[in-house]
Amino acid sequence: MARNITKSAALALGTAAALGAAWVGWGAYTRRTTDRVPYTTALHVDGVEIRRYPDTVVAKTTADSQGEAFQRLFRYIQGNNRSRDEIEMTAPVSTGREKIAMTAPVASESSDGRMEMAFFLPGEYTAEGAPEPEDEAVTIESIEARTLAVRPFSWYATDARVADNRRRLFDTLSAHNLTPTGDPFLLRYDDPWTPPFMRRNEIAVELE
């Protein structure tokens, strides 16, 4: 009986190890194969990176939940557009609230705010040349070159973790006399199946 229990435990441990290795492998694979929005780094200050981004094009929507917004945009890049084109996924995915009350250097979110999400399109697309969405709730927008202040963090992007890193971002900007403009937003780089310790998230805000 003891021998059978030992064999069962060893089998369970082996299976768990194999699944864990596959999970980590998937996270590494998606990180290597997903295109990233290009940028140049201008400065590092106390855990915050100041980046310069070129002109970019996004597919954007606003929904009652993060899941609804993601699925709507995912359908668009999977071919739910007038030309039926499939578009490569590009990291990061930008999320924020439609309504955010700003009191510099602290930002607070309205509890009744809706979820705003944007997928960055590959660099070869322009706002005029991108496939036209079938869903009227999806829009294609051009974002001019800009400078962002970004604070990275890992693990799941829970409300508490986002709020903490947002506070630290604004504290750092205030301490270094850097002036934010507009609303802060969340950047996510990984798909939902990436292990939490491998996830890359960022709180970002545009600078004057």
From TrEMBL:
Recorded hits in Pfam families, A to Z, give: SOUL
Superkingdom: Archaea
- Entry's InterPro entries? Reg_factor_effector_dom_sf, SOUL_heme-bd
PANTHER family, per the entry: HEME-BINDING PROTEIN 2, HEME-BINDING PROTEIN-RELATED
Q: What is the protein's given name? A: SOUL heme-binding protein
State the species of origin.
Haladaptatus paucihalophilus DX253
